[in-house]
Structures are given as structure tokens and as C-alpha cells.
Amino acid sequence: MSVRIIRVGASGPEDVSKAVLDELAALPIVYHPDLSQPSAQWLAESGVALKEVANGQVPDGAILILPDAGLNQGAFRVRRGDALEALVQVVDRLLGPGGCPWDQEQTHESLRRHLIEEAYEVVDAIDGKNPDKLVEELGDLLLQPLMHAQMEALKGGFSILEVAEGARNKLIRRHPHVFGGAEAKTSDEVLANWDRIKQQERGDATSSSILEGVPSGLPSLLRAFEVSKRAARTGFEWPSFESVLDKFEEEVSELAEAIDSGNGERIESEIGDVLFTIVNIARWLGVEPEGALRSMTQRFILRFQSMEARAQRPLHELSEQEWDELWNQSKALLESEAR
Hints:
60% of the residues lie in helices and 6% in strands. It is mostly helical and 339 residues long. The chain is elongated, with a radius of gyration of 29 Å.
């Protein structure tokens, strides 16, 4: 059912913008769940024609008023358990009549980069081991699916309720060892069940590829890691860690041959093979390569910035020996600070 919802407080017309109130007053009928509530009284006094919802039925295209006792003087006074619902209410207010022009102009496409940026800011907060920052960044990230869902809800489509219900049902379905009679005593067994159920959900357990669903937009190192993990779960795996190392040596040798050939396309291909083999080495050792490279890059940045601060003259004027000395000093200093 396509019903537009507007949430209002109990205290009076000051709880909604004049534009919203004028819009409601111009409509022939606006639905309300309980005409005895204070919000119904002040809406009626403001010239809004209200009709009480009968048997929970609201016609398609109608406007439904939902009273919010926590909304007063434009501020949300929220009990802890109601925080998520109150956040949805704030988003609805921003997107609805009299809301924020910037939010109202957004589309799923325009919000893509914000979703990616917020996800990376969460990663930075995790790496920084700052709980307060993590709370803030998780909140910013949480706002993104709410925006996408409630934008659809305003058009009569799905809302965050359908999103949450779908996620809940999927978790229950794919954890039969918790919510059903299946057994899974190890993480590997859990993942095997997950893959099997996922393929069954697609309707063709024989032809659906286990590699379907790996997002093409993932960072390449992370995507390679995920592809490698999924392939290995089918049994496509080296017999031992030593054989993975042998493969690495083989790929390095082939890269050297490509470099000697001077063929740019071949060099690029062989570098890709070396990188993919390193991803598999990391997987065998239980290391997430994206995180390992991210941490190494951050260490390099800190060491380089320390060198810049300690150098007595511009870095491009330093000798090779001075570079080495500064690098080692910066490395030792940062390692001592980390202890």
C-alpha cells in the first residue's frame, strides 16, 4: 500500500513547518489513528480535516498522521530503546514537505559516494581504536541505508522496515545451526552451509556460481581475497602451504622473464599473477591482505612524515645514506612510541 506518513508531536502546530500544515489543511481528508489524542485536536483546530483509521486500513495515496510523543518544539526527546525509530522519524522529516532541500534533492545515485566515504571513515575509526569516533562514524554510516530506504518509502515503495525484515529473515534462513536443526561446529561448516543455502535461494543449486555476488566495485585486493576464499571452499585449493610458496616463486620467475621481454602487457599480467598469489599466501596464513596493506601504508605515511619533520633540509637534497639514517631513526622512534 502506498501511504505517505507524517509524524507530528502532541504540543501544537509549532511541531511542524507552516508548509506542511498548509498542505494538510488543503487536503479533503487526512487519516489519524486516534482522534482523541492531543495531536488530532490541534490539527483539527488548525483546519485539517481528519478521519480516524478504521481497522488499520488506509487508502492508497492517503496521508497518515502518526503521533510522536517524543517530538516537541522541533526536538526529539528519545528513550534509549526508541533511538532507531526516532532516527527514522528525523530522516522522514528531512525528506518530507518543509524538510531539507539538499536531502530532498538526493537520489540513490547521488548518495553512492557518500555511502563509500562513510564506510571508509568507519574503517579509519576502527584502525584508530577510538570508540567515541567509531560510535560517530557508525552513526553516519547507518544514516545511508535509512536515506535510501525512506526515499523509496516517500514514493510508495519499500521502507527501512522491509530492509530490516529482509535482513532478519536472511540471517535466520542462513543460520539453520542456530535457528533450526542443522549442525555446524566450525566456521568452515558455517560458511559451507551459507554458500549452499545461498545457491538454493537463487533457485538453481547446480548451475549458480559460488563466485556470483562478489561485488565488482570492491577494492581489487579485497575482491581477490573474497574470490580466493570462495573458490577454496569448493575444494579448488593447493594441497599445502609449501605448494603456495612454490607457486609464488614460479610467478616471480615468470615476472622476471616478462620484464626481460620488455612486453608491457605481459609484465602487467605477470604482476597481477604475483599479487593474486600473495593474496592466497595471506589467506593460508589467516591474514586479510587489504587490512595488511592498509596498515603498512599507514606505517609508511607516519614514518615518512617523521622523516620530513626530522630532516634538516629538503628531502630531495639528502644523500642515500642520509635517507637510510632518517628512515631507520623514524622507524625506531615510532616503534618505541607504540610499545
